[in-house]
Write a structure and sequence with these properties.
- With about 120 residues, the protein is mainly alpha-helical.
- The protein has one domain: 3-Layer(aba) Sandwich (name from scop).
- The protein has a two-stranded antiparallel ribbon with strand order 1-2.
- It is globular.
Length: about 120
């Protein structure tokens, strides 16, 4: 049975590699096809970093909620969100909608100024 030193050693190795204990989950929703939002990706360490890089490349909003990430990380990729999480996911999606709109407004204003 591993003791606390094993997890400490693993943590030090991850930190040495420049990837701290990072965990992320990504949600997707297609109103035409899906009944509920789905987990489209989740991962730790290097995988988590890559998911965040892709989100940034595609101007996708990102929020920080470690508890929700832990819950979503327990679901399989492609799984729909269970009904008991609808409320919290609705809050996240509302936040993402407003963040995306604000970013679009900022980009539009920058384009107007540049023109």
């Amino acid at each position: 049975m591993p003791d606390g030193r094993d997890s400490q050693r693993a943590r030090r190795l991850r930190e040495r590699d420049g990837v701290p204990d990072l965990e992320v989950a990504a949600l997707g929703y297609d109103g035409a096809e899906d009944h509920a939002p789905k987990v489209i990706a989740h991962g730790r360490g290097h995988t988590a970093r890559r998911i965040l890089e892709l989100a940034e490349q595609h101007d996708l909003p990102v929020t920080k909620d470690p508890t929700l990430v832990s819950i979503l990380g327990a679901l399989d990729v492609g799984a729909e969100i269970p009904p008991d999480l609808y409320g919290v996911i609705a809050e996240v999606l509302a936040w993402a909608y407003h963040a995306d709109k604000a970013a679009g407004d900022t980009r539009a204003e920058a384009a107007r100024r540049a023109a």
